[in-house]
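hi! just following up on the protien thing from before. the input was this:
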Amino acid sequence: MTHTSAQSATPYVLGHADAELQRLAEQAAFYADLTENAFRRAGLAPGMRVLDVGCGAGDVSLLAAAIVGPTGEVLGIDRAPDAVATARRRADAAGVAHARFAVSEIDGVAPEGAGFDAVVGRLVLLYQADPAATLRALARLARPGGLVVFQEFDMRTTRSTPVVPTYQWCCGRIIALYERAGFEPDMGSKLFGAFVRAGLAAPTMIGAGRVEGGADSYVYRYITTTMRSLLPMFERLGVATAEEVDIDTLEARMRAEAVERASSLVLPHFIAAWARTPA
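and the predicted 3d structure came back as:
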């Protein structure tokens, strides 16, 4: 994800290894309909020029590109060169010529390149030391009356019924890690305040989520790949040991518990907020 220059030395907690970029692509497909719904509700439409902040491997940029169509344009920016290179390859492979990508910090977009019809981001603000200040800076890149749209997790909404102990333990460790690292696990529920403190109008907001269960659900792989990417940070920050995580058996253990109990697993609530800049 992209960070403000004040946080340039702070690493993205999940890293940018090939396995993490693949995990991000899988996560994006898992949540694509929720993000598309939020973007369309917010007002993204054909012909728009869109800036995607913290584009990672390009999933949100490609989703926005599908909405704005070939008469529009999407610029995805990220601080990680490997992620940007992956995004470019994916856009080329998909024949999406109106999506382009650049290595850049949030404040690295040249003023003459501003005037976007929409500035969007997904799972970006939770990594910012001052989300309101970040939003304020990004809003300046939108044209007068342009859209600012962000979508973030509210991680504490996770639960399972009946309880799946391994799933709940993983969710708890992830939240603890984000807190210890100084990030905001419940950024979704704090979007309203961040928008207002950024000087934007009170945003329109919508929440959505995924509820999974059964032997064939992707949720077990999703949690396991997330835990795998986080494992070095777990150990570095003293949140969990490799032995406690037991990554090689984690997916199977979680699935067995959920299937045995016929449980539903509620994933983090995904909250989107949007507002227009002053005309």
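Confidence is low (pLDDT under 50) at residues 1-10.
Strands lie at 49-53, 73-78, 99-103, 116-122, 142-154, 159-161, 204-208, 211-212, 264-266, 269-276.
cheers
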